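Researcher: Here's the sequence for the chain we discussed earlier.
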Amino acid sequence: MTHVTTFPRSATRTNPGAKWLRLAVLGMVGGLLPYLAGGFLLDDNFHLERLTRGQGLTFAIDTAGHQMTWWVWDEPVRIVYCRPVVVLSWWLDRLLWGHGAFGYHLTNLLLHLFNAFALQRLARRMGLGQRGAYAAALLWGSSVHVAPAVGWISGRTEILAMTFMLAAAHALFAWRRNGQRRWLAMAVAAVGAGCLCKESAVVAPILVLLASRFADGTRAGELHHRPRLLQTVTLAAPSVIYLTLRSCYFEVPEASSAYFQPVHGLGDAARMAIKALTYGSGALFGLPVLPLASESALADHPWLAGIAFIVIGLGLLLLWKTAGARATVVVVAWVVVALAPYAPLMATSLYLHVPMCGVSLLIAHAWERSGSRLVHAWVATLVAMGIAGHVLLGVFIAQATDAMDEAADQAAAAFDRREGDLVLIDAPVWAYSLPACLRLRHGDDDFETIFLTFSPGILPDASGTVVWEGSHTLRIDRVGEPMFASHVERFLLFGADPRAAHAGLPASIAAVAPGPPGSSSLLVELSPRGESAVLMRFRGWRLEPLASPSQTADRPDRGVQTGERQDHRQGKRPRRDAGEQ
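Model: Thanks. This is the structure I predict for it:
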């Protein structure tokens, strides 16, 4: 006779692990709520402004179409994708919510929570217990690497691609249980829909089969049908068709070097190794992967790369012992496959959105199987770091988008008094879509926006000076860091060389003279058309009109300005500071 051990319900109710999971889930949801206070950020303004003009289902950034330029660009920046499902979701948001950002963020949040629930159910089908499944959903849902997709409306590409990938996995598991062909057909349809959300979804068939392989080690007895060659080819058919149509019939401009970094030699191979360390340390230990900055930190400090290699190896060894060799190998393959489409691109947390699904399943599996305090501490630390990261990013997005809206209003007010181009100095990176934001909020479309300089960091910088040298020439000086040396500026260069000869300067600019490498100054000479331009400078979070030479000459003496103090120390004639009205 088989002896069955039962546990009283009171023991389940007082299970500290279950109570901890419920509290952590509430904490995760609470940590995501600050995103609802944010507005339109970065590319959001471009995409939604194009949507209001009814420009089809294309997904593009086109600086010429938005009448904007940075003087260093020899040619307009144009990035085009075909992601009609995402654009259609924005169109539905526009019907429901109008131009308010709250509804768009709410859609992102609800889709993300749905994906977390779908991952929990998938984890159960893959063989994890109830606690392990909830832990997997919690680890993924609160990860710092899902933050860019959830908090950024343009990041919905990752969210919807993940939605259809999970749908394909659920459908394949249903087919494996009962063998009904309709489930296999639903899996194929979901793969096709995912490809129309983001190009990286072409690897979804491999990821779905890896999830199925993971389950073979835990629930093989419940899965009666195994994917054979015919089913595998059928599942992969949408990806093959999409890639064929994309390469043959859909014209895609060549990506700039800021995004696309193919491997041509040993130096590029070394860079790919650094990128692998960047993603590995980010995925296993919750470290945010910042564009260009994270890779550069490891490349510039070999000792740091060595530490990352050792720590990643120790983490994988711990998972090998606690989760098992089979599960570890399958999940490592999952991460490699999911990151493969992004291999030539700069590393960023956004691209870890889908890979973190596999990592979360593996760590949760190890946590459920092992009584190791180290694994428990690992899970708790990842969740706490993730929730804190979401709160901080949500607050920053709200502050940056409020500042963007205020800057658009300030620029519109300046245009009410003058006509001409808009010339911007020391713009933060999140303000590069200001032209589209201005058109969305005020409908102005008869001007060109010209960026002279960008702030070197994510946060705005007001430490530099802007002074007039004569009636047509501006001198822009930066304190501390050289021009064009920061990660933000290097990214926005899109491969251009700021010190090369530029024949195609904007009509409002007659000449630009950057200093030698390492210089922290820039001379800009305005053309006759530039004399009627609206010149504005970001001072911290605020956009303010720049005083003209006549205004600075006519204003009462208000003491020595920043630029003047520097000239007095060097024994030069004080220059007129154009930084204040």
